[in-house]
Amino acid sequence: KALSVSNPVAMEARQPRRSLQQRSRAKSQAIRRSRRAIKERGPSGGGVANVVGGGRRRSTVEGSKVRGTQCGALAALKRPRQIGKAPNNDDDDDEGFQAGCDHPREVAGRPQVVEEEEHSSKVKFANQPLERKKRQERLFYSEAPFPKPRPNKRRIQGEGGGENEEDLAGVMVSNEVDEVFRGAKTDLDKYLALRGLHARNPRAYRRLLVERTEEVLPYIYTPTVGEACQKYSNLDIETTGLYVTLEDRGRVLEKLRSWKNGNEVRAIVVTDGERILGLGDLGAGGMGISEGKIQLYTAAAGVPPDQCLPICLDVGTNRESLLEDPEYKGLRRRRPMGVEYYSFLDEFVQALRAWRPHCLLQFEDFGNHTAFVLLGKYRNQLCCFNDDIQGTASINLAGILAGLRLKEGAFSEQKILFHGAGEAGVGCGELIALALSTWHGVPLPEARKRILFMDSKGLVCKSRLSQLQDHKVPFAHDLEHAPDLLQVVRKHKPTVLIGVSTQAGSFTEEVLRAMCENCNRPLIFPLSNPTSKAECTFEEAFAHTDGRCIFASGSPFPPLTVPSPDGMGQGTTYHPAQANNAYIFPAVGYAAILTEASCIPDDVFLEAAKCLAGLSSDEDLERGRLFPPFSKIRETSAHIMAHLCQFFCDEGYGTKPQELRTGEEADWLQYV
């Protein structure tokens, strides 16, 4: 019901659209002014009669009678929005800032009168009973200022029921934040912009993480997280994780129990920063990789953020540049060795078992030798795994299985060459050998003979046995030593070439062309991270194999468009597959959590690989997508989780929740 334009009070109430912050600030001010007015005048003083409900009621404003209007400071909050007008920045009072509110203007010496809205029956004013005032305030501050998207119906399970993703449906990322994100000049700027959003508005950040995973993944994880870890101490950021240092010895359990929301934690990613991606010892900067990995549990598997905890074990660093850096925030000492180091690690693990006995523990980016020792010692004591060894192996195996859908020849007929023999490479080799043994009945020693490794000194073989680290020994075959990759490719004729060496450019044109001489469609997997460490690019692999290679990389590469032979049309676009562990470890981890698994055996990673390899459509495979796009990561993870939950329970590693009826994969798919 419109007011007369001649009414000065109504004219004052008609204001330009103000910013989100101004509107929020003004609502808080209006509520406080209304309460002060009531306190000064009393319930019946001052001549302010409030409107309750949406009907026509008489209200008096300083002796003036206005029909059908809402009076008082709170009524001004419900004025119609005026789009496209410049904001008014007169008010300098920042007290009471919250998001999502309109900004009223106070008329000097008198309350406001504004138009009555259709839903005014929902508005309760200042001298109503306290419960009504609180309910009215909740109405103001719970209204989402952005359109409500279609919610994801899948429920996130957790203690206390978890949080329904429908609750996030009204939490949208504002245009202002989008502009900041897209206006960032570098990848690191985007990383910092996302961290800033996380700090300011965790729910909006989570919505962004869930709805636009494919877009933000390169900035919260590889390749950008590597640069962030290198500069972690120099960046103006506040960690979201927990540091446990050597100085905490004897009270690690107390340190863990002091963590906020400690009773909610169900998944932990821990690193000691010794071997971050392909960048080496970054000390306390390793926290960045734990933070990045843990967010993927939310983005890919739907684990609520308050159930995830990134941890960095700060035991010092052996990198001189960090020890000499005045801004380095970690312990300024060299890393301990032997008993001192492993006793500290054992205290941490035992403290974790005492604190959260059913919690998942993911080891991340430990040194090569340390990683194998820790996994071997604790894998049967608690629910844990090493993503660098087992997760990388699983995604690699999934890539091979998916790639074989495009070429002739069985899995058991392939010969595989790894360029690099660190924890990632040997872990992949062991899982492939286990797959050959489990699925094709090939004896394990014979299966290993179909897998070759090269390290910095050349082909891993028996003549070098005395010089080899323990984890390489099973793959030291009775072969002639060769120091050069090209020589090995030509002599032993592998059909699958996998790079885990962090040696950029090591897959040369000659090597790639030699692979095409061995088979019609070779599998080329440069898996080293970050992008700067990849053995070759997608464009190089495509060009030097005449488009015949089946490609997957560890870091993302842009798609490649090949013109049509006749020059007509738009050509064909090929999308390089990214063999990202994010397809595997969140699903494995959350399946273990849901079933309260006692341990995570290697068979679980075989099942995860087999399930993932079958999820890509034939059309996607022809365009180079060995795995479903990251835009479908939640659906992909749900299928893998359902398969693994059934496997955990069927094999006796986990238990079925009581509310689940049959425990069949279809029921699990609905459950997760």
From TrEMBL:
Annotated Malic enzyme NAD-binding domain residues: 389-643
Gly residues bias locations: 43-54
Malic enzyme N-terminal domain span: 198-379
One Pfam family of this chain: Malic_M
Cofactor: Mn(2+)
Biased composition (Basic residues): 24-36
GO biological process: malate metabolic process
Entry-linked SMART domains: malic, Malic_M
Keywords: Metal-binding, Oxidoreductase
GO molecular function, one term: malate dehydrogenase (decarboxylating) (NADP+) activity
Cross-referenced InterPro entries: Aminoacid_DH-like_N_sf, Malic_enzyme_CS, Malic_N_dom, Malic_N_dom_sf, Malic_NAD-bd, Malic_OxRdtase, NAD(P)-bd_dom_sf
Region entry Disordered, spans: 1-104, 144-166
Residue runs in coiled coils: none
Family of the protein in this entry: Belongs to the malic enzymes family.
Protein name (record): Malic enzyme
